Amino acid sequence: MTQLLNQQDGRWHMSAGTDTAWISPEEFQPDAALLLDVDAEPQAEWADASLIGVNFPALTDGRGLSLAALLRQRIGFTGDLRAVGAVHEDIVHFMLRCGFTSFELADERDPAIVLQQLTPYSQHYQASVIDPLPALVRLANT
Amino acid sequence: MYQYDDFDRQFVTERVAHYREQTERYLAGKLSEDEFLQLRLRNGLYVQRLAPMLRVAIPYGTLSSTQLRALADISVTYDRGYGHLSTRQNMQFNWPEIADVPDILEQLAKVNMHAIQTSGSCIRNVTTDHFAGAAADEIVDPRPYCELIRQWSTLHPEFEWLPRKFKIAVSGAAVDRAAVDVHDIGLRVYEDDQQQHVFDVLVGGGLGRTPVIGSTIRTALPAKHLLSYLQAILRVYNRYGRRDNKYKARIKILVRALGAESFTQQVESEWAMILNESEPLPAKAIQHMQQFFAPPELPAVNDATTELPAQRLQQPAFSRWVERNVFPHRKEGYSNIILSTKAVGVPPGDVSAEQMLVVATWAEQFGIGEIRITHEQNFVLPHIRQSDLFALWQQAQEADLATANAGLITDVICCPGGDFCSLANAKSIPIAEAIQRQLADADFVHDLGDVDLNISGCMNACGHHHVGHIGILGVDKKGQEFYQISLGGHAGHSNTQASLGQIIGPSVSRQQVQGVIGRIIDIYLGLRQQDESFLSCFRRVGIDPFKASLKEDPHDAVA
What we know:
The structure holds two protein chains of two kinds. Chain A is an alpha/beta fold.
């Protein structure tokens, strides 16, 4: 079983995971929940998915971070983008800044710790999916 | 140099708090060994053969006297009273306790320092010319761009989990002292016809198991697009670099697999799309950064009035030091100084707390309170008035920092090797020491001229053996330490093309290394024409005449 981390009424929240009826890219149809491997090549039609999951094979595998940035900035996907697979509480803050909006974590992860790890930094040097425009946010404002 | 503002200070403070909390979770058993490994590596903490090693970031090798004093304090409190200058312009401490590291980071944060991304598969500390902003041959000061890259790459959300480590170097002078040819990304900055700063971009250079000279994938990139172009390269690498084999995971393998042309096309098409999705770096952001690196106000001095020529005549040892360790400055009457850490009997790059303290004092007394660290593991004092050289030299002699060997064979680049590092196949420091003792005759060494001797204890090549004029690599043969010797490597820093060394033949035992090096020198002395340097001689005659150095009998060797 898994736990789901997402925002409900503007607050981050951990709850028991539910079964999602994922489909693969080959089976893609609009308004479905699409599950991608981290090496997927983004397709324009995926903007119409109801939910996109990106399956991380390992804590150290950063491909899904680039994929998320592309789904948001290039494909223009605005729906729920979920990190699944090897999702670790210490990577969630990077994932958030790449455009993920929900996270499926293994049952043994401690919800209290996970919720503490969402925003270890109050500010960042560089632009990101959720803080777009100039490459160095702070310098553009000097 | 760059001055932290409230943003930077708050950021490093939050980083210390974050790492402290991660360490506490690890010590409480809430993070596994493997999970914590990834987090501590990205904060510079290795667990080595004997004890942990903490690598402190010295951004592009520049630090203030205040910062160097803080490092001296840390070395006394948490280490054994010394630090180690790394081949990437950082400082390493070899004996900290894991539980103490958050406190060390807190002390570092007080002087605007950190250990962020000094190891792990992420963008490492950017390196540059150790004479940047002071060199006579500088075209564009690379430091404002280094700082931009430092900030952009710090905890970059997309690029913190790359296939492998990623090293960027920037050079802005006629002579490349940053070895940009052998970095994951090498940048050469210069002025175009309109006096605008532009970059040539090299990708896929590197040492390690598979040494490669980087390929130039773009020329004359406008400065405002520097970060978006880096983003395009990093994104292509992050998505397509191999992750199945750590020995094939560096970007050079990807560039080789795709071919430089096809790799370039991928980067260019990614970049074109990024340009549509983002804004270029505003000119005012670049100007803001350049203000931090404005040339220091050095009083105009009349060179002719200095006593330097007379001092050199009276003191041949001083004269030799001036010849080897004093480098031209952009302003009349000033110099840049290399303080060599390569005295005989001291592991290359090791500096004591006492030495750090006196160097910090000299920087204030004779310079502008600023110190550099070179990738050759020495200190640099920039902006030194020539009339102060003699006084500085006298004090440096007392501190064992006046060895007149910058660029000579005894100025050995050397990794920590099997004495410290758990990756090493063989010891490296005792080899360096034995060769330094063997070549104790300063006149002889001086006469040999420029020879880069680089020693790595394993094929990870932290001692840059591939680009040594003479390179020594520690290898393991059935549990025995052996050494493979190569010749003709070059990092590109004396204004000639970079090259990778060629192996002279079978590896030799530790006892044989000194003999082989001695015979290589003899062969060179027999072949050289007039003032021909070792590298020029090697390039003229090739490797064949040197193969005889592997034979025990010196008469065979020179025959």
